Amino acid sequence: MAEDSKGVSNLLHENRTFPPPEDFAREAVAGADLYERAQQDRLAFWAEQARELISWERDFEQTLDWSEAPFAKWFVGGTLNVAYNCVDRHVEAGNGERVAIHFEGEPGDTRTLTYAQLKDEVSKAANALASLGVAAGDRVAIYLPMIPEAVISMLACARLGATHSVVFGGFSADALHSRIVDAEAKVVITADGGYRRGKPSALKPAVDAALAKSETTVEKVLVVQRTGQDTEFDESRDLWWHEVVDPASPEHTPQGFDSEHPLFILYTSGTTGKPKGILHTTGGYLTQAAFTHKNVFDLKPEKDVYWCTADIGWITGHSYLTYAPLANGATQVVYEGTPDTPHRGRWWEIVEKYKVTILYTAPTAIRAAMKWGDDIPEKYDLSSLRVLGSVGEPINPEAWMWYRRVIGGDKAPIVDTWWQTETGALMISPLPGVTATKPGSAQRALPGIVVDVVDDAGQPLENNVGGFLVVKEPWPSMLRGIWGDPQRFKDTYWSTFEGMYFAGDGARRDDDGDIWFLGRVDDVMNVSGHRLSTTEIESALVSHPAVAEAAVVGAADETTGQAVVAFVILRSSHAEDEGITEALRQHVGQEIGPIAKPKRVLVVSELPKTRSGKIMRRLLRDVAENREVGDATTLADSSVMDLIQENLKKGS
Ligand code: 6R9
């Protein structure tokens, strides 16, 4: 066991590897030469990608201007229109009949949009927004369910050069209000409601409540009719989408915008304080999103059916549902609802129905499917799947193996992709035709990306010692700042280590140079001077057959400084196991060592999660330390904390 006072202890060992199937490697989009080309001349490599993957209205003169670091300018002097890149050019190239979106509503209604139809819809929406006074530089808030209008709205904004701020449909009126105010939005696009767990769930009342909270800059609210439920309407402010967009002209000439024109703001909660409006711009963002999507998912746009299960309220929904797949001319599935409505096989039914070839989802969903049992996915034909992606959290080796075996038929490569709202696009991931994949490791920086694992002083660490992940060179899709707060941008990301971007994640490299993520550094526990990673202990717990999900936190302890407290969800078949908590303590002791043994194991039925499935350990720490639970406004389901406290009362 590595004991180091500087980094994070490294306790978990994993030696299994899975080389790409030979035929896959032979036909793969990306070969090992990409690493070499990027290594030889990083900026020339990115310039080449930008010119190959993106259509520029005016070519750029300089690849990177880093003279005002950490404020980057990429592809300086270039102009482009993102919506033109995502729709029009595919129609011009003769692919107008290709399906862009197979939409599957939760109640089972479907809609197919070809690229030609999508171009018309985006143009109509752009004309309608323009008629409401939206122009380049204005901000538009989007608060929609997962329906085609969400993608259409984002692209319509991009077409006009208006900056969108998508707010997750599960967020409250308060959260929506603060985001509208911070971005000074002119228009809000919403819907009467969406379908969630088998019933219509209203959205418009939250917009009304948000706008009633204070005087705002919002002039108009555009409302999509999705569920047909009764909706209050303020005639002076509200407009129905079908009355404004449907009759608008499908002709709209896209204009080129500067490569650094603001494309969108997306708020990320962080662990404390007010949400940060992460700002992304145009040329660099689209380049890296398109490059990574094509190469990491091995995309062959004429054959593949791609499905990213993320909500558009998350960065994954921006980069890998809206922008990159459409820029690459892919055919994709967009699904409105939850994985278990009306039954727990819904996702696999969708894979079978559309013959999905590339699936991109999150560990939280994989663990839920594991908990429900292999017999459910086994009922469906999943043989079309050839690449599986994971994002959002470290994937536990156990969940990785299950994903590969049960969903991937023991052959589809798994790409575990590490990135952040701030990085805009994938940064660390295997290349599926090149890398021998390893359960639980995100592996290597992608071509053109330079990362390292450093100690507290910013010095590179040797292998097998846990430390902090940093990015050492600017990258095209990097955030350009925090909306309205340049100082916070510098303080948060660029002041911990001189000249390096600090991601806030713990990581280590193994002897092959592969990177393992250890969890957010804010969540690292300090037990008797050992810094323990949440990820490793959670993975050890999940490797026990009784455990479906686990979250560990450090709670103040008189003797050890902090003590490990574990919250576990048991698999239904083990719910009644006697002495399970003691067995789990012993199991962790055996798997990774006595220091990591949880002092307490608490059985719960739910864990608090964000919209992207990340566990909010901060709230669990409050519970473990018997404190009042802190700000829970960014929880996907706000009732979870009450449920956990009830569970614990009953258990004690
Ligand atoms: C894309 C996204 C970013 C944080 C990031 C890290 C965690 C995401 C991961 C991962 C380990 C992966 N994270 N992917 N950790 N392995 N493959 O999730 O963006 O919502 O901003 O979260 O998520 O902790 O720093 P965002």
TrEMBL record:
GO annotations of cellular component type: cytosol
Acetyl-coenzyme A synthetase N-terminal domain sequence ranges: 33-86
Transcription regulation among keywords: no
EC number(s) reported in the record: 6.2.1.1
Domain AMP-dependent synthetase/ligase as annotated: residue spans: 93-483
Start and end residues of each AMP-binding enzyme C-terminal domain: 536-614
SUPFAM superfamilies, per database record: Acetyl-CoA synthetase-like
Residues the record lists as binding ATP: G392, E393, P394, D416, T417, W418, W419, Q420, T421, D505, R520, R531
Name of the protein this chain belongs to: Acetyl-coenzyme A synthetase
Gene (name only): acsA
